[in-house]
Specification:
mainly alpha
């Protein structure tokens, strides 16, 4: 049994360290970076008083509308799906190395996020362009009417809040460097700066989404839950909201630049 575990670990390591796997992973980081830069641009438009959809759906819509959009979407889907496999194998390797599935949950969570992105790219490439805000409201309404649905939503909201805090903590402490295929601490200073700012901004965005989920749950009002787009627009509606949202937009753009920089400096 021990030999089987070691063999599995070696095979996982071999796959994730292969030139092909690394090349696809680097391409995936560029796609994720592009997506965040587009979200930042859409958020900036909202901060300036324009009507935009500042979330992944809105960003992918921009890609789909560009010349050669469907080809780009399929390319993004393939790269993000490959990144999912790569991250899951990283998790398996950590599991085997430490003897516990709890070890390496960072790569697993990241892999799930990349899988969701791959599904979004495929959906748009096939012509299914449903508004994510409306989808979020529908899911919330369904759960509110289901047994234990309130519990599920509360847990989801708390997880998003926790994820927001986790991203913020990693940004402030720079603890992301050298982990989960992140750049090493020896990268150029500008990579560290955009990474820190980007992690904090992404943490703020996730935390606000989590708060909206909890508010929608406790008020029993699905209309309060409209995903990232609604979260950013709720920021815009606060005192000095335009400035706050503008700062978040800059931060999300930094996260996008940092993600693209991982294609060059990732610690594989």
């Amino acid at each position: 049994m021990e030999n089987d575990a070691r063999n599995a670990e070696r095979e996982a390591e071999k796959v994730t360290r292969s030139p092909l796997a690394k090349g696809v992973a680097r391409a995936g980081f560029v796609f994720v970076g592009l997506l965040h830069v587009l979200i930042a641009w859409l958020a900036a438009q909202i901060a300036l008083g324009q009507n935009s959809q500042a979330d992944q759906t809105g960003a992918v819509e921009q890609i789909a509308s560009a010349p050669g959009g469907p080809v780009i979407l399929w390319g993004g889907a393939v790269c993000c799906a490959a990144l999912t496999v790569w991250m899951v194998l990283e998790w398996v390797a950590e599991w085997q190395r430490h003897g516990s599935p709890v070890k390496g949950l960072g790569p697993l969570g990241t892999g799930i996020a990349y899988l969701a992105l791959a599904a979004l790219f495929v959906s748009f490439a096939l012509g299914n362009r449903k508004n994510s805000s409306e989808k979020s409201k529908e899911i919330t309404a369904t759960l509110l009417g289901a047994p234990f649905g309130v519990v599920v939503l509360v847990v989801a909201g708390l997880i998003l809040l926790g994820a927001g805090g986790y991203f913020g903590f990693r940004g402030v402490t720079r603890s992301f460097l050298g982990k989960d295929a992140q750049p090493t601490p020896h990268v150029p200073s500008w990579v560290k700066v955009v990474g820190c700012v980007g992690f904090v901004a992404k943490g703020v965005a996730l935390a606000v989404v989590g708060i909206l989920v909890l508010v929608a749950t406790f008020r029993h009002d699905p209309g309060q839950q409209s995903g990232l787009d609604g979260a950013l627009k709720s920021l815009a509606g606060q005192p000095y909201g335009g400035w706050i949202l503008g700062a978040v937009a800059v931060g999300l753009a930094c996260y996008g630049v940092y993600s693209a920089a991982r294609a060059r400096y990732a610690n594989f």
